[in-house]
Design goal:
Blueprint lengths: L12 H8 L5 E5 L5 H14 L7 E5 L2 H13 L7 E4 H11 L1 H4 L6 E3 L1 H14 L9 H13 L4 H7 L4 H19 L2 E3 H14 L1 H10 L2 E4 L7 H11 L5 E5 L14 H9 L4 E5 L1 E2 L4 H11 L11 E2 L6 E7 L2 H17 L7 E5 L5 H10 L4 E3 L3 H4 L2 H14 L4 H7 L9 H14 L3 H6 L9 H19 L5 H11 L2 H11 L6 H19 L4 H9 L14 E5 H4 L4 E6 L16 H15 L2 E10 L1 E4 L2 E4 L4 H5 L25 H9 L10 E4 L3 E9 L6 E6 L4 E5 H4 L2 E2 L2
Parallel strand pairs: 1-7, 1-8, 2-3, 2-6, 4-5, 6-7, 9-10, 11-16, 12-14, 12-15, 13-14, 15-16
Antiparallel strand pairs: 17-18, 19-20, 19-23, 20-21, 21-22
Helix pairs in contact: 1-2, 2-3, 4-10, 6-7, 6-9, 7-9, 8-9, 10-12, 14-28, 15-16, 18-19, 18-22, 18-25, 23-25
This protein binds a DNA duplex through α4, α10, α20 and α27.
DNA sequence: TCAGGAATGCTTTTT
DNA sequence: GCATTCCTGA
C-alpha cells in the first residue's frame, strides 16, 4: 500500500498507520517534532490516491499560515488542487456566507476586531447603566467570549442565573452587546464559531449538505479547540464519521481562550470505534533538549504519561545564563545570535521567544545595535496602522453601511468639519429612532439641532459613499485606489509626507502595499470586496512570519507553536513572567504556563539558550526578580552575572529528571514559612504570606503586603521577619 | 471644533 | 512606561 506516487518520504510504522487509515475516525496523539503535519499532508495525498476527490477533503489548521504551509506541501506532492485548507474561522465565514439565509446572517457582515469589540462593549455597559469601574470592559468581553464558546446566548444565561446579581449584569451587558453588533451588521470572532456551530446543530439539512461536501475531515492542533470548535468538527463529520484529529495534550496553551483538553477525551466517547495512533518519536530536537523538556513537563500532575523518544543522535547544546538586567540579557542574546551567524548558521533558522509582546523591545534594540536582521512575528504592525485602518473603514462602510464603527472612524478623516458634537447628535438620534446611522446622515435635513452648513457637509459625505457603492463590482484594487484619491486621504498623507524630510512617507507606502495585496487578491482569488475584507479581518500575527526571510524571528511563545528552528533563545525565565503573574494563583494555569515553556523548548533542533535577568523593569518599576521554578524543574542551572559567560552541555546536570530539585528540598528540614503568617519586610512593610514554594536555597515566598501589592520574593534575599 | 496638556489607568497569551 | 481619556482654553 505504500507505493503511493505522492509519497516520497519513508514513514514510521505508526505514521503509516495514521496516513493509510481511510474510513472512520482517527485520533493521533502526537508529541512535538513527531511529523504531525507530514502525517496530515501525506494522508491527504493518500486519500486522493485512493480515489477521493480533493474537493471532498477538508483540513482545519490553527493559523492561516499553517494552512498556507500545508497547501504548499500538498502542491509539492503534486496533489491536484481543490482541498479545502483553512482555519476554523475562515471555514465558518464560508459556511455562513453560503448558508446565510439558514444561519440568519446577512451576506455583507463586518467582522469586528478587539478594538471594535471594546467600544461596543463600553456602549453596552453604558446602556445597562452600569459603571465601567465595577464592570471592566475587558472582563465583560472575556465573560461573553466564554459564554459564546459554550454556545450559550444572553437570554439563556440570564434565565439560568436568576438571583445572582453579577451574572444578571453580565447577562444584560451581553444582550446589549449583541444588539449593538446586530445593529452594526457585525459579528465578532466568537460569533463566527457560535453561529456556525448552532447552524450545524439546528439545521440537519445544512449539516447534511456539508457532510456530503466534506467527506473527509482533518483537524490539526485539536488540543486547542474550544467547545464551539469541537461542536463544529463533530457536526461536520456526524454522518460519515471520517474525522481525523491530531493533538498533543502537553502542548495545550490556549486554555484561556476556552480550549479544552477534554475534547480529546470526548473524542473517544463520541467516536467509539476511533483508532488511536500515538507518535512518540521526535525527529526534531537533540536528545539533550528533549531530556530537559521531558523533565519539565513531568512536573505537571494532571497529565497522562507520555514518552519523548529522541530519534536524533546526541550533540545538542543547552546554554543558560542569568544577566544583570533586561538590557544585559538582550545583548547577551544578541551575542549568542551573532556568534552563530558568524559561524555560518542561517538567520532564518534562529528565533527568540518571550512571554509577553512588550519584551521584544529590549531585544530589538540590541539586535539593531549588533546589525542583526530580525522580523517580529506580529501582524498588528501593518493592519493596526492608522492609515490602513482608515482605508479599511471606508471599504467596510461601502459594503456595510450599518457599520457604525467604520463610519465614526472616517466621517471626519480627513477633516471635513464634522466634529464630535455633530456625531454625538447623529448617533443619539439614530439610537432613539432605531434608524441606521447612515440613513440618518442621508436624511439629515430633518434634524433641527444641526446647523445648515454642517448638514451640507454631511450630505456631501453620504453622496460620496453612495457613489462608491455603485462601483462595488470593480476589482478591489481599483476601487481601493479610487477611494484613496477621492476621499482626500491621499492628499492628506501627501501633505504630511511633504513636511517630512526626504519626501519618503511610510504611510503612503503602506497604503500602496495594501493596494498591492488587493491586486494579488483580484488576480488569484474569486470574490469581491466583501470577501477581501472578511479575509483580512481573520489575518493574524503568525501570518506575517516568513520562513525564508533571512532574518531572525522574534515572537511570543504562543506564536511559536507549530514552528521549528535550529537555534532558539527563550528569555525572561522569571517568576511572574514565565509563569506569568496572572497565572500564579491557580495550579491549573501554572500547568498551562509550564506547557508553554515546554512548547518553546521543543521548537529547538540544535541549540537552546535560556536566559533570565536579575533585575527587570516592568511598567516603569525596577524590581529584583525571582528565578522561575521551571528552570529547576527542567534541570537547567545557569551561569550567574559577573561570571564569565560560558555554556554547559546538558550532561553536566548531575541528577536527572527532577531528582535534582527534590534533594535540594530535603536539605532544608523545616519550612520556615506557611500561608497566612504575618511578616515584615524592610521596604514593603507588613504583609501576609500567600504561598511558600520550598525550593531549598531558591525558595520563594509570595507575600501580600498591606499596600495591596502581591510580591514573590526570593527567600535568601528577602530578609523577612516573622511577626506571628 | 480642535489642539494640547493633565490625569488616569492598565498591562498575557490570539482567531 | 505608555496609551488612552479627560479637560481646558482658544
Amino acid at each position: 500500500m505504500t507505493d503511493n506516487r505522492f509519497l516520497k518520504e519513508k514513514l514510521t510504522e505508526s505514521q503509516n498507520k495514521a496516513v493509510w487509515h481511510r474510513d472512520g475516525s482517527l485520533l493521533v496523539i502526537a508529541g512535538p517534532g513527531s511529523g504531525k503535519t507530514r502525517v496530515i499532508t501525506n494522508r491527504i495525498a493518500a486519500l486522493v490516491e485512493q480515489g477521493v476527490s480533493p474537493a471532498n477533503i477538508c483540513a482545519i489548521t490553527f493559523t492561516n499560515k499553517a494552512a498556507e504551509e500545508m497547501r504548499n506541501r500538498v502542491v509539492a506532492m503534486d496533489v491536484p488542487g481543490g482541498v479545502h485548507l483553512s482555519t476554523f474561522h475562515s471555514l465558518c465565514v464560508r459556511i455562513l456566507r453560503k448558508f446565510s439565509q439558514a444561519a440568519d446572517t446577512p451576506d455583507n457582515f463586518s467582522i469586528y476586531d478587539d478594538s471594535n469589540q471594546k467600544s461596543c462593549i463600553k456602549e453596552a455597559i453604558k446602556q445597562a447603566e452600569l459603571d465601567i469601574k465595577n464592570f471592566p470592559p475587558a472582563r465583560m468581553l472575556e465573560a461573553i467570549s466564554r459564554l459564546k464558546n459554550n454556545l450559550q446566548n444572553a437570554d439563556e444565561f440570564i434565565a439560568a442565573n436568576v438571583g445572582d446579581y453579577f451574572s444578571q449584569c453580565v447577562g444584560k451587558v451581553y444582550r446589549n452587546y449583541q444588539k449593538i453588533l446586530k445593529q452594526n451588521n457585525a459579528l465578532d470572532f466568537d460569533d463566527l464559531l457560535m453561529a456556525t456551530a448552532l447552524l450545524l446543530k439546528n439545521n440537519p439539512g445544512v449539516r447534511s449538505q456539508l457532510n456530503q461536501r466534506f467527506k473527509y475531515l482533518m483537524v490539526d492542533e485539536y488540543q486547542d479547540t474550544n467547545h464551539a470548535q469541537y461542536q463544529i468538527a463533530r457536526g461536520l463529520a456526524l454522518e460519515h464519521g471520517n474525522i481525523c484529529v491530531t493533538g498533543d495534550p502537553d502542548q495545550s496553551i490556549y486554555g484561556w481562550r476556552g480550549a479544552d483538553i477534554g475534547n480529546i477525551l470526548a473524542f473517544e466517547q463520541d467516536w467509539p470505534n476511533a483508532v488511536i495512533v500515538k507518535l512518540e518519536e521526535n525527529f526534531r530536537s537533540g536528545p539533550e533538549i528533549l531530556a530537559a523538556a521531558d523533565r519539565l513537563i513531568s512536573a505537571n500532575k494532571s497529565r497522562k504519561q507520555k514518552r519523548l523518544i529522541p530519534a536524533l543522535p546526541a550533540g545538542a547544546e543547552i546554554i543558560s545564563q542569568c544577566l544583570e538586567d533586561e538590557r544585559a540579557e538582550a545583548s547577551y542574546v544578541a551575542g549568542f545570535v551573532r556568534r552563530l551567524l558568524d559561524s555560518g548558521e542561517e538567520a532564518s533558522q534562529m528565533a527568540v521567544f518571550y512571554r509577553v509582546n512588550s519584551m521584544s523591545r529590549a531585544i530589538e534594540e540590541a539586535f539593531i545595535e549588533n546589525h542583526i536582521p530580525y522580523q517580529i512575528v506580529r501582524g498588528v504592525e501593518f493592519y493596526g496602522r492608522k492609515e490602513i485602518r482608515d482605508m479599511l473603514a471606508y471599504l467596510k462602510l461601502i459594503v456595510n453601511p450599518a457599520d457604525e464603527q467604520a463610519m465614526v472612524r472616517i466621517i471626519n478623516t480627513p477633516g471635513r468639519g464634522i466634529g464630535k458634537t455633530t456625531i454625538d447628535k447623529l448617533v443619539a438620534y439614530s439610537a432613539s429612532k432605531a434608524i441606521g446611522l447612515f440613513d440618518v446622515i442621508r436624511n439629515c435635513e430633518r434634524l433641527e439641532s444641526i446647523p445648515a452648513g454642517t448638514k451640507a457637509k454631511l450630505k456631501k459625505f453620504a453622496e460620496m459613499i453612495v457613489g462608491f457603492q455603485k462601483d462595488i463590482e470593480m476589482p478591489v484594487a481599483d476601487l481601493m485606489d479610487k477611494v484613496f484619491r477621492n476621499t482626500g486621504l491621499y492628499n492628506e498623507l501627501k501633505a504630511e509626507a511633504a513636511t517630512e524630510d526626504g519626501g519618503k512617507s511610510p504611510p503612503l507606502e503602506n497604503v500602496a502595499e495594501l493596494i498591492n495585496s488587493a491586486e494579488r487578491f483580484d488576480m488569484q482569488e474569486q470574490g469581491g470586496l466583501v470577501d477581501f475584507l472578511q479575509r483580512i479581518a481573520l489575518f493574524s500575527d503568525t501570518d506575517t512570519y516568513e520562513s525564508k526571510s533571512g532574518k531572525v524571528s522574534l515572537m511570543t511563545l504562543h506564536c511559536a507553536k507549530g514552528l521549528e528552528f535550529d537555534n532558539v533563545a527563550i528569555i525572561g525565565l522569571e517568576h511572574g513572567i514565565l509563569p506569568h503573574e496572572r497565572s500564579i494563583d491557580s495550579a491549573r494555569e501554572i500547568e498551562e504556563e509550564r506547557r508553554l515553556f515546554f512548547v518553546g523548548i521543543t521548537r529547538a533542533r540544535k541549540r537552546l539558550c535560556v536566559t533570565l535577568s536579575r533585575y527587570r523593569t516592568v511598567h516603569g518599576m525596577t524590581n529584583r526578580t525571582v528565578d522561575s521554578q521551571f528552570l529547576f524543574e527542567a534541570g537547567l542551572r545557569y551561569q550567574d552575572t559577573g561570571q564569565r559567560q560560558s555554556s554547559f552541555v546538558e550532561s553536566d546536570v548531575k541528577e536527572p529528571s527532577g531528582v535534582y530539585y527534590e534533594t535540594e528540598i530535603s536539605d532544608e528540614n523545616q519550612q520556615p514559612f506557611s500561608a497566612g503568617q504575618l511578616v515584615s519586610h524592610k521596604k514593603f512593610g507588613l504583609g501576609r504570606v500567600k504561598e511558600f514554594h520550598n525550593l531549598g536555597e531558591n525558595s520563594i515566598v509570595v507575600v501580600q503586603f498591606k499596600t495591596g501589592q502581591v510580591k514573590p520574593l526570593m527567600l535568601k534575599y528577602a530578609n523577612l521577619s516573622i511577626i506571628e
